[in-house]
Design a protein that fits this description.
The protein is mainly α. The protein folds into two domains: 20-78, Orthogonal Bundle (Helix Hairpins); 91-192, minor pseudopilin epsh fold. Helices cover 48% and strands 11% of the residues. It has eight helices and three strands; from the N terminus they run αααααβββααα. Strand 1 and strand 2 (134-140) form a beta hairpin. The protein is globular, with a radius of gyration of 16 Å. The two termini are 25 Å apart.
């Protein structure tokens, strides 16, 4: 059985980038519903003993949608910090970003552009293949890199419930603001595994 992840920060700690009101709905209502649905769908599926990533890689239909959303949101919420330990990427991740995009600013612009340009609801991801090459993925609904054999590293949620209370229809402004709270040490740790 899955449980709602505990946030590693106070509900108002990410303000003004993400308000306590948005966090209350996004984490406490939306994610809780996905966790509850996953727990209802998992028994009898034959996937009960698998990790969340393995479930996402093997499931389909409603089970995939709810497992994907739990995984996506868990990675999303745990990548943020009110005072990031590292506000810029370092180490091998920084070197790979430099190699592929020419620098962090160019990467961020590309990432934001793909997030803004994703039609409808979904996620934009920084993802890595087995050789460590990076790419930016645009995924609709609950889809994510784990379903495609890639390692999920960093994600911005472009479902309206992630930003509408704070930014209304200004998705681009929301995506740009999120960089202030990304803890790159967390992303580097995901890249290293």
């Amino acid at each position: 059985m899955y449980t709602l992840i505990q946030l590693p920060f106070a509900p108002d700690a990410l303000e003004p980038v993400i308000s306590a009101n948005t966090l209350s709905f996004h984490h406490g209502k939306h994610l809780q519903a996905y966790v509850d649905n996953l727990n209802k769908l998992l028994p009898g599926s034959g996937l009960e003993a698998l990790s969340l990533e393995e479930i996402v890689a093997k499931a389909s239909g409603a089970l995939f949608n709810n497992a994907g959303q739990v995984l996506n949101h868990n990675l999303y919420f745990t990548q943020f910090a009110p005072q990031p330990s590292s506000p810029v990427p370092g180490g091998k991740l920084a070197a790979q970003i430099e190699k592929q995009w020419g620098g962090v600013d160019a990467f961020k612009a590309d990432f934001e552009g793909k997030g803004t340009g994703l039609f409808g609801s979904g996620w934009v991801w920084l993802q890595a293949d087995a050789d460590g090459a990076l790419s930016i993925g645009q995924y609709a609904n609950a889809d994510n890199p784990a379903a495609h054999g890639l390692k999920p590293l960093l994600t911005f949620d472009v479902w309206e419930h992630a930003y509408y209370l704070d930014y209304q229809n200004r998705r681009a402004a929301h995506l740009n603001a999120l960089w202030q709270i990304v803890d790159w040490k967390v992303i580097e740790g995901r890249y290293a595994l």
